[in-house]
Amino acid sequence: MKKIIITTILCVGYLHAGSINIAVAANVSYAIDDLKKEFKKLYPDTDVKVILGSSGKLTAQIKNGAPYDLFMSANMKYPEALYDDKIAITKPLVYVQGGLAYFSTKAQDFSKGINLLKSESIEKIAVANPKTAPYGKAATEAMQSAGVYDSVKYKFVYAESISQTVSYVMTAVDIGLIAKSSLFSSKMSKYKQGIHWVDVDSKLYTPINQGIVILKNGEKNKEVLEFYNFILGEKAKKIFNNFGYLVPL
């Protein structure tokens, strides 16, 4: 019986060897497959498991003991809080800077700028929940800075994450303020800049610096460190650039 128990333990250990769990902000969902493929070329024996969600909800899960090894947030606020609480073991670093875009499946007159949102033809506007999604907070800030927030807030349809915001634009609303990165996925190639989407003026919102940290669960795990270094390295920067992000030098 002892031999059977030992064998079982060894098998379980082998099955989980080289597997890492990373919590990833929803806006990175469009780039994560390319990132995983490139990482796999360098480390073919490491299995990267991705959990997607809004940064706020992922942070709550981490604080409640979710077994994530690394966190790629949509801003610096949440990883900094985890670092202050000693749940993250590395100081948060910026891995990319994200941008906002207006997006509609129908051709729009984007020459109106943010005032387009006030048009009678725009009845519903998708916005990520600003309480849990940093891109939602940036979208709210942009509308407040431009002085249109109070006149359009009754049109808002709130999504849990920035990826859900894109889904709402595709199915149920007239326009959305989304992560620019989502527009560079192959599924979105039919939508053209200047016709279906344009950048939101970056002067209207605080720069979206996205932070990465290794969590306590991933401490002393060489695979986690390898993925962390990869995300901060040149190969990942090229991929992020391809998805419309700005990357730190």
Question: How would the blueprint of this fold be written?
Answer:
Blueprint: H1 2-16, E1 19-25, H2 29-42, E2 47-53, H3 55-63, E3 70-72, H4 77-84, E4 93-98, E5 100-103, E6 125-128, H5 134-145, H6 149-152, E7 156-159, H7 162-171, E8 175-179, E9 197-199, E10 208-214, H8 222-231, H9 234-242
Parallel strand pairs: 1-2, 1-3, 6-7, 6-8
Antiparallel strand pairs: 3-10, 4-10, 5-8, 5-9
Helix pairs in contact: 2-9
Summarize the structure.
The protein is an alpha/beta fold and 249 residues long. It has helices spanning 2-16, 29-42, 55-63, 77-84, 134-145, 149-152, 162-171, 222-231, 234-242, and strands at residues 19-25, 47-53, 70-72, 93-98, 100-103, 125-128, 156-159, 175-179, 197-199, 208-214.
Q: What descriptive keywords fit this protein?
A:
globular; five-stranded mixed β-sheet; disordered N terminus; D-Maltodextrin-Binding Protein, domain 2; single chain; 249 residues; alpha/beta
Order of helices and strands: HEHEHEHEEEHHEHEEEHH
The CATH homologous superfamily of the largest domain is called: Periplasmic binding protein-like II
Q: How many strands appear in the DSSP assignment? A: 10
**Main sheet overview:** 5 strands, mixed
Low-confidence stretches: 1-16
**Morphology call:** globular
Q: Overall mean pLDDT score?
A: 92
Structure commentary:
By secondary structure, this protein is α/β, with parallel strands linked by helices. The chain folds into 2 domains: 2-97 and 208-242, D-Maltodextrin-Binding Protein, domain 2; 99-204, Periplasmic binding protein-like II (D-Maltodextrin-Binding Protein, domain 2). Helix content is 37%, strand content 20%. It has 9 helices and 10 strands. The chain has helices at residues 2-16, 29-42, 55-63, 77-84, 134-145, 149-152, 162-171, 222-231, 234-242, and strands spanning 19-25, 47-53, 70-72, 93-98, 100-103, 125-128, 156-159, 175-179, 197-199, 208-214. It has a 5-stranded mixed β-sheet with strand order 2-1-3-10-4, sandwiched between helices. A 5-stranded mixed β-sheet has the order 7-6-8-5-9. The radius of gyration is 20 Å and the shape is globular.
